[in-house]
Fold:
Amino acid sequence: MAVRKVLLYPHPALKAVARELAADADAALIERVAQDLKDTMASYPGCVGVAAPQLDEPVRMIIVDVTGHRKTTSCHGLMVLVNPTVVRAQGQEVAREGCLSIPHLTANVRRATTVAIQAQSATGDPVEIETEGFEARCLLHELDHLDGILFLDRVDSLSTDVFRRKTYR
Ligand SMILES: [Zn+2]
Structure:
């Protein structure tokens, strides 16, 4: 197990498109990155998600766990997802987001309110998740990291929708 250093903006690796994983050929890598994602998330109190590229692993893996967060409505517990894709997204809402890779800023970001996501589990089983609200937002935020997109890329206005962080929870 390993708590990994999280890359900070503007590290160029955060802007890269991550590669897809193969359940068989990449089995050892998937197992290691899954554990590193869990250990790293657990080392940040209040953290609800991390993407592999933030750990300098350029592969399509994310972890999300909104259990116990005050904004949580729908909750699937701890999810480690391999090759996740959005198969359906509906609605839109603007809400505040933060990111371990941009620790001193938050921003108002417009995202879908309801999503369906297909992926594989860390052991290669197919997974489909339908969720909404804060959990949907967290999944979409982490999925963006796999395509080199940061929340600052999604704000309507850099002058009015970006804020210096006052608290870290
Ligand atoms: Zn992030």
